[in-house]
Design brief:
Layout lengths: L2 H15 L17 H28 L3 H47 L1 H14 L4 H23 L11 H25 L5 H23 L4 H29 L1
């Protein structure tokens, strides 16, 4: 036996005797899985703070009655939460209907002409840089395993993480709107008419900056950019409403 054969034999024996350790489980977390609920939650909370703060500031600029301001704010909270829930449900349901229609069309196309659909998958993989022969093998195996799932993912861009969930989106929007609206409303409730406008406007912008930072952090984006973006546009909305309230208040 040569030295090389001896070394190969010893190496093979070592591989047989070595204890194979269990590889760690896949624990990587992707931000894409949060897109559905994160979008609805941020939109709801942001709209709750901005709309209620704007309403309170606008009414406070036009009226000197503390009770009227609180009633207007409470009305805006309830109406806004219900409106957000209904709007999100209808919007996401429409998206789900469109996705289901596309999936049904793909299912019929696979049933009627499976070979063309397999070639369509292979072409997609080739365009992404896979060798032609390997693309054909991948398309064939995926079609055999889950043809509709392969076309949904690679042709239509649909996935479980990004699937439309109308009820989840509606509840997230309604709850987060109410929570967001409660923040400026509580400032208005405990504040006096003399300090209400700067207190509600300033406090709401701080809430919004924090919300923007948290949302950016949850989505893997820059926190300062997220906070600055939401604060800038919200300040314009509050300022515009305060101006309208002051104008109508002076007229009345």
């Amino acid at each position: 036996m040569t030295a090389r054969e001896h070394a190969l034999r010893e190496g093979s024996q070592y591989l047989v005797n070595v204890k194979v350790e269990k590889l760690p489980s896949h624990t990587e977390v992707h931000h894409a899985g949060r897109v559905g609920w994160l979008r609805a939650a941020v939109l709801g909370a942001n709209d709750g703070i901005v709309s209620t703060a704007s309403l309170v500031v606008g009414v406070a600029a036009a009226s000197s009655d503390h009770g009227n301001v609180i009633i207007a704010g409470m009305t805006g909270l309830v109406a806004g939460a219900m409106s957000m829930a209904a709007g999100e449900y209808v919007s996401v349901s429409s998206q789900a209907d469109a996705d289901n229609a596309d999936l049904e069309r793909e299912r019929l196309e696979i049933e009627s002409d499976e070979e063309s659909e397999r070639q369509e998958l292979a072409d997609i993989y080739e365009q992404r840089g896979i060798d032609a022969s390997l693309a054909q093998q991948v398309a064939t195996q995926l079609m055999a395993h889950d043809a509709l799932g392969a076309h949904a993912r690679d042709e239509l861009g649909l996935s479980e993480q990004r699937s439309a969930r109308p009820v989840q989106a509606a509840l997230a929007s309604a709850i987060t709107f109410a929570l967001g609206a409660a923040l400026p409303l509580s400032l208005a409730y405990f504040g006096s008419m003399a300090t209400m406008i700067p207190l509600v406007a300033g406090g709401s912008l701080l809430f919004l900056a924090f919300l923007g930072a948290v949302a950016a952090r949850a989505g893997g984006a820059n926190m300062a950019l997220g906070a600055g973006r939401i604060t800038f546009w919200s300040s314009l909305a509050i300022a515009a409403t305060a101006g309208v309230g002051s104008l109508f208040g002076s007229v009345v």
